[in-house]
Amino acid sequence: MKLLITGARGQLGIQLRSVLERGKSELGKIDDIYSNADIKYVSHNDLDITNLNDVLDYVEQYKPNAIINCAAYTNVDRCESDIDNAFKVNAIGPRNLAIASHIVDAKLLHISTDYVFSGEGNEPYKEYDMPNPVSVYGKSKLLGEQYVRDFCDKYFIVRTAWLYGKYGKNFVYTIINAAKERGYLEVVNDQRGNPTNAEDLAYHILKLILTDEYGIYHCTGNGECSWYDFACKIVEYTDIKCRVMSITSDKIKREAKRPSYSSLDNMMLRCTIGDKMRNWDDALKSFIDVLESK
């Protein structure tokens, strides 16, 4: 098996590499096929996915059996002013990978986001629900999804949310550091979603891509909470002495609007390969226990 992973220096890309090198995740062993796989981990310095000719040359020369696209422009606020680059990375990049994967008959697994939804609902979004993004980031990610569907046949679109992991910047590290420094935090309590441990997501990605169960998937931690609830659990599990106060979103000035309710339902996982994603607070507790054991 030949596997190409783009965005390999990002949070999820590094987590995938960690699981692949260990041959397992906290959820269990991954398939033995990966132990003998030829895997290329590429970042922007190795391959500019926004350049079609570069992507075609690279993919046609390597001829992977599967591509996992973790590359993304994820600074939600900056996307509002850096519109062209947001669409280049989040839409044109996936389009180029889709075109190339179709040419070499490779599977493409593309990572997307809960921000493709408006957030106006009050129950978890399913894969068939109509997207309606409210930010440039969400719109660019939705166009990326559409291009993947338009330009290749063997695709998996995996929407995730509120991702955190061992590597890179994320909400968990931000709260831990701020709680230690300040001892007092204000966190919004009117946005709800699903915190997702990158270890769990990586496991399901590597399981899914070995199948022919093509289509759109939601893959997040089970259960939902607000950012305030999430922060309270982080402080509780790390045993940091810090007071956490809830505030509303209008108290924070941000460039981009966030969906107020973006919880996802992992329905298609349950219907195909099975949903082993942990409840969000169990996965968080495990993550912090591992952090503190080192």
UniProtKB/TrEMBL annotation:
Domain of life: Bacteria
One term of GO molecular function: dTDP-4-dehydrorhamnose reductase activity
UniProt-listed CDD domains: dTDP_HR_like_SDR_e (cd05254)
Listed InterPro entries: dTDP_dehydrorham_reduct, NAD(P)-bd_dom_sf, RmlD-like-bd
Primary enzyme class: oxidoreductase
GO CC, alphabetical: cytosol
Entry EC no(s): 1.1.1.133
A GO biological-process term: dTDP-rhamnose biosynthetic process
Every RmlD-like substrate binding domain range: 1-291
Key words, A-Z: NADP, Oxidoreductase
Pathway membership, UniProt: Carbohydrate biosynthesis; dTDP-L-rhamnose biosynthesis
NCBIfam families from the UniProt entry: rmlD (TIGR01214)
Known role: Catalyzes the reduction of dTDP-6-deoxy-L-lyxo-4-hexulose to yield dTDP-L-rhamnose.
Family in the record: Belongs to the dTDP-4-dehydrorhamnose reductase family.
PANTHER family xrefs: DTDP-4-DEHYDRORHAMNOSE REDUCTASE (PTHR10491), METHIONINE ADENOSYLTRANSFERASE 2 SUBUNIT BETA (PTHR10491:SF4)
Protein's UniProt name: dTDP-4-dehydrorhamnose reductase
Organism for this UniProt entry: Thermoanaerobacterium thermosaccharolyticum
